[in-house]
Amino acid sequence: xxxxxxxxxxxxxxxxxxxxxxxxxxxxxxxxxxxxxxxxxxxxxxxxxxxxxxxxxxxxxxxxxxxxxxxxxxxxxxxxxxxxxxxxxxxxxxxxxxxxxxxxxxxxxxxxxxxxxxxxxxxxxxxxxxxxxxxxxxxxxxxxxxxxxxxxxxxxxxxxxxxxxxxxxxxxxxxxxxxxxxxxxxxxxxxxxxxxxxxxxxxxxxxxxxxxxxxxxxxxxxxxxxxxxxxxxxxxxxxxxxxxxxxxxxxxxxxxxxxxxxxxxxxxxxxxxxxxxxxxxxxxxxxxxxxxxxxxxxxxxxxxxxxxxxxxxxxxxxxxxxxxxxxxxxxxxxxxxxxxxxxxxxxxxxxxxxxxxxxxxxxxxxxxxxxxxxxxxxxxxxxxxxxxxxxxxxxxxxxxxxxxxxxxxxxxxxxxxxx
Length: 419
Description:
The protein has helices at about 5-10, 15-20, 40-55, 60-70, 75-125, 200-205, 205-220, 265-275, 310, 345-355, 365-370, and strands at about 30, 35, 130-135, 150-155, 160-165, 175, 180, 230-235, 255-260, 280-285, 300-305, 330-340, 375-385, 405-415. By secondary structure, it is α/β, with parallel strands linked by helices. Strand 9 (about 255-260), helix 8 (about 265-275) and strand 10 form a beta-alpha-beta unit. The mean pLDDT is about 90.
């Protein structure tokens, strides 16, 4: 019988049969460049298929095939040996079954816990949402003239402002919707989209995830939370990366957190999540694109920039961090991470092709250092390492696998000229 007929009879594909021949599991006769199978080879193919279904490895199947072909199956020794192999396989499968059942119980328990937790979250979501903390109104000033902002048409209670208008005598205005401040000028050329499914961190490679976590841990160790005094901490461009999010529970009670992004959807999403955490923190949520924030000068202790500079300079040409230096107090600091690429890499070419408005020196650590001149002094900057695979990641969609994507963690302090 030829290979096509054998394939039909054994329900194996011709390519599978040829694979078994090439692996030396069966030895059909070859006549005029065509294989011809005897009844013995057909029976052996059926056995091979059965052993495969039992879960034997290719190496083990080759051993069993050799045993079968070198025996007439009447020898007591061979029969006992084969019986022992099959019996051992049964024991292995029973052990695997017990382990599978144990793991299945763990999975079911976790699913039940998640179900209960989801129900708990649904209950929490029915609680009254937060607004702009009344205790933080003294931190709000006009970004144009520096005067304290006034409030009109407000919906408030004893703790929060939920809606209204912030205004200044110089005609500056900002609105409050659902406890979120919306202010500044918004461009109509947005190329970025809000990551409302938070997919960026889910698609990155394990290699990049590990490097970012190591960088995050390094930065968190310098956040000075051990002082136990309330602080004012600000993080911008949450759509790029939200460093503070997993650390919010560790921040000192009574601290003020200022969170900003250009997308209302992103700020709303994180506001809803944070409300579920029941934190003793004052949180100001701001939607803004032009970086003219209605925050009092010299009021911020720590500014977080985890890739914000990189993200901002994908779309804008001016330096990012200098725009916030006036908000830091005299002892204020910037903690952050800057991503860099090799100057002549294909990733850089892809970057400018994908983001035509990108700053010509973005992802260049030397440029980053120069952009700080006159506003900040570098206290510490450290090369955290590099990755050669970013995964299916829209955080750096231009990165070419095999090249080096580095992360530099840094600590800055306000320049003496700025104080």
